[in-house]
Design goal:
This protein is of the alpha+beta class. The chain is globular. The two termini are 51 Å apart.
Amino acid sequence: MAFQKAVKGTALIGGGAIATVFGLSQFSQYRNKHGTFVHAQAAEAVTVPIMNHFPTREQQILALQTTGEFDVLVIGGGATGCGCALDAVTRGLKTALLERGDFSSGTSSRSTKLIHGGVRYLQKAIMKLDFEQYKMVKEALEERANLLEIAPHLSAPLPIMLPVYKWWQLPYYWLGIKLYDLVAGSQCLRSSYVLSKSRALELFPMLRKDELVGAIVYYDGQHNDARMNLAIALTAARYGAATANYAEVLRLLKTTDPASGKERVCGVRCRDVLTGQEFDVKAKCVINATGPFTDSVRKMDDQEVPNICQPSAGVHIVMPGYYSPDNMGLLDPATSDGRVIFFLPWEKMTIAGTTDSPTDVTSHPIPTEEDINFILNEVRNYLSVDVEVRRGDVLAAWSGIRPLVTDPNSKDTQSISRNHVVTISDSGLVTIAGGKWTTYRAMAQDAIDAAVQAHDLKAGSSKTIRLQLQGAEDWSPTLYIRLVQDYGLESEVAQHLASTYGDKAFEVAKIAQVTGKRWPIVGKRLVSEFPYIEAEVVYGVKEYARTAVDMISRRTRLAFLNVQAAEEALPRIVDIMGKELHWSEQKKEEELEAAKKFLYYEMGYKVKSDQLTDSSEISLLPSDIERYKKRFHMFDKDKKGFITILDVQRVLESISVQIAENTLHDILNEVDLNKNGQVELNEFLQLMSAIQKGHVSGSRLAVLMKTAEENLRQRMVIPVDRSGGGLFSQVQLLTDVGEAAEMKWLV
């Protein structure tokens, strides 16, 4: 009865809401109908020739130095900045772009990886009758459809489940999601639908069963954000834009307008970060697209201008893939503090986030333990009690700064705009700020429209709707099969290359090294558990990668998927980059250290390693302590109270297992809290206690010592000549410590 009343009540209220939204949607579609027909042909109307290959970075720097004057100069190499460059150059404007770090090195690589309109924004638009918020959702849904079309290799629709635990919520959420479909109109990816409890658990078996009523599934898009950003930059470069990463703007150049007597921005003084060389770049129009750093560039123009950026930090974590189904996300619409948490499959892992808290603007945001634990606690609320959500399963964590802005053109300058804002200063500096990843193209279009009008530039309308990005032209879902057949790549590697580089995957395959094995024929992996291969490092240098951090975080996504795997791959990455870029031994050491520092602070390695410290509490049962002491003393035969590499080698030799000395050093160093070259009994007990509590997982030392203990016990019982192949299975186990560490027998 209560459910029926809830349905009837929601239907009455919802009928009006649906009618209102439908009316708004139809009005919006009618208003833009003519524009849509024009936009449908936009990509075909591009008359600017596109090069087969993008220029080298050295050629780009030379173009910046020798071009007398550009029409448009964009500051910022994130999604919006690169979008501005692509929009301008395809209109026939002479375009330049400067980025002081790497393309997508800021907020654009640290997103939730969703291409979406924003379900929660639509809810607010309806509840508050906010037409501006409705327009933002409508625009985002249109841009979502376009982005999925222009880069299908980097993006795809993703079903997202909204579990329902109260009967009255089912019609309420169903109505909201159906309105979301309705606003999308003909660009709705797939229609949402309701699931019974049993069907929901079948599709998402990790879900908490208690009190589950059912679920609603809707569709949004998902993408590889850093690679998408890079694809926009490379596409702009191929159309002729002079784009350069590691080119820092030092100050704005100004000239006095003879007609008005006012100062006008006419370019920038910049520095090549890699060489230290400084030079001027002149331009008729300068566009500030620097995200969280918006105000710092605005103050280069006018020191007295008030700040408009209100930065907000969002933390995400990555967990093993078994925490979520391969192709089904989860939305927590109301966390304990009123925020929204997404729990999504991504790159065969599981990503969870985000938080939302005020922060200072920095180039190196750091995830906090408090935020990580908040996300973990919210995840626990939705997963089955059978799934132990462990702190040790956090493989990577990062913080991104969302550049929320107040609109200086609004009467209420204190209110935060959820949409983007375009402003033009008295000196002609164009600033584009706010918005979201999904709407980067529309933001760029608005910025260039404003620039064309304010600076009287000779250009037509935007050409970027349906304009395919780098790698999309000849991509197909079955392209990876040709890579397997033509080059002898592993199927997993071929799928990865196809979904990362699109039709340019063949260029990577052509330079892949022969493995010397029967299969795969080519493609040496950087780390065994991920499909990244060494050839990608060589190709990444061609894609303007200039540091090891560029390679582990944005050309590949290793740092965002598993910080320990990224650290393991670093030496080989640095060697390959060193050869390509002619690095000295000192430079290689510097790159190695800089990349390790990046992993330690910005990608969550520090907060992960802090789970095991010299002050960690040992909370073990007396029986467990005795058991672990016996295991420890199997290695510490001399009762020294600590074990060294020599002790471990001696035990391994006794069971005929060989592990390289440098590998053993790394294994012990993970647990050696005092960094004195030895693991003390107390450190070992702290490790085992942390493993039992779920704070640490994947400890190679714990796996090694357990394996050795089991092997020695078997040798005491089974004669050597009858032990069969047991040794091989133990050695094989050691080679896959990540999987072994998840097993209950570890402790």
